[in-house]
């Protein structure tokens, strides 16, 4: 299912320039963005079986991107995302008594992306974006009662894993000036289902 969505995203993104502005004047040649997104694709539960019911601290995705504007419409760049999660398991989840263990999850993602600004106005920009890359997961387990509970996890302490990463943004909006703007985007992937943040554009000296 994810591969189909990514393929569709690529088709849409590469088709957008044919309908976008035919303005090839370079605007902000270098863009830096910092954002926060909810429900990123990396936020999954490793889980310790149906017998344990945890509390969950889900921070969400924190990400930074760099985009080099090739034209006013097309830009390419790189994205880094970080998604931490903490699960705490108790014998009694209602009263938080009898701690069993603490499970931490975190992912680090690095992707390359293509960004299409298909509408550029003085104060509002609309864009689409697609990215692909890889991510690393790290899981850490702290056991408080190892003699009473058998924790089913690939390693009794820590383990790492590498996986495929992607981001598809069908629509995003930037509001501000050419140099400073806030953004809101809706998508699927490592930056979250809904993301907000700040974009800074740096003009090259001619």
Short structural summary:
With 206 residues, this protein is mostly beta strands.
Report the portion of residues in β strands.
over 45%
Name the CATH class.
Mainly Beta
N- to C-terminal separation? 46 Å
CATH architecture call: Beta Barrel
Low-confidence stretches: 4-26
What's the number of helices?
A: 1
Computed structural class? mainly beta
- Biggest sheet descriptor: 8 strands, antiparallel, barrel
Rg over alpha carbons: 21 Å
> What strand order characterises the main sheet?
1-3-4-5-6-7-8-9
Helix fraction bin = under 10%
| Count of individual beta strands | 9
H/E element order: HEEEEEEEEE
Q: Count structural domains.
A: 1
What would your notes on this structure say?
The chain has one domain: Porin, CATH 2.40.160.20. Strand 5 and strand 6 (124-143) form a beta hairpin. It is 7% helix and 60% strand. The longest helix has 14 residues, at 2-15. With 206 residues, the protein is mainly beta. It has an eight-stranded antiparallel barrel with strand order 1-3-4-5-6-7-8-9.
Provide key terms for this protein.
elongated; single chain; Porin; mainly beta
List the helices and strands and how they pair.
Layout: H1 2-15, E1 30-38, E2 54-58, E3 61-69, E4 74-92, E5 97-120, E6 124-143, E7 158-176, E8 180-189, E9 194-202
Antiparallel strand pairs: 1-3, 1-9, 2-4, 3-4, 4-5, 5-6, 6-7, 7-8, 8-9
